[in-house]
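Record format v2
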Amino acid sequence: DTEVTQTPKHLVMGMTNKKSLKCEQHMGHRAMYWYKQKAKKPPELMFVYSYEKLSINESVPSRFSPECPNSSLLNLHLHALQPEDSALYLCASSQESVQAINYGYTFGSGTRLTVV
Amino acid sequence: GNSVTQMEGPVTLSEEAFLTINCTYTATGYPSLFWYVQYPGEGLQLLLKATKADDKGSNKGFEATYRKETTSFHLEKGSVQVSDSAVYFCALRSKLGSAGGTSYGKLTFGQGTILTVHP
């Protein structure tokens, strides 16, 4: 299995809703990432998990709350979002080793989020 | 810090034309270099990579050579197809730090180049 699976593919939520995005990989990767991407722009890093521990938070607002329940799963909990948070949310994973820089990330297809 | 600069787009070509998308980088140490492609409505796919100077990455007719002397990693294809229409991102990865006794590197992206190929 060489894929990163993200669900749901599309999500529409109101500003008072609580929802969660899910990401799963079975490649044995021990680093997992959340990115936010606006149309035609590069992905912006939000969070990095390494060995199920949060290692990077790129000053993301607290209305986004990541969780890594185990080495294969990554969640992003959403609460009280704003319309400007509408974007494509991408999950990625990568190897975690001394040779890790030789390998790219494997990305999921993303969740298209619309906040109304 | 690390940075990647790509040529401004969008790039519009006719089918079978030659493609070059320029990419230059700034990094400390010896980064690995990557090209990612994003087709409409999809996530990013790794297109090719090179991990040391003078390495050539290739895939699906695309090529790029890691040039340390010019800090460049230009993407080329001899004959583009309509199906190559996508956004192309140049990226680098260098050692960031350590976690759990091993090391990993943060991926730094360029701004992306939109390619449109007409029949």
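The CA atoms of residues 26 and 41 of chain B lie 30 Å apart.
Confidence is low (pLDDT under 50) at residues 97-103 of chain B.
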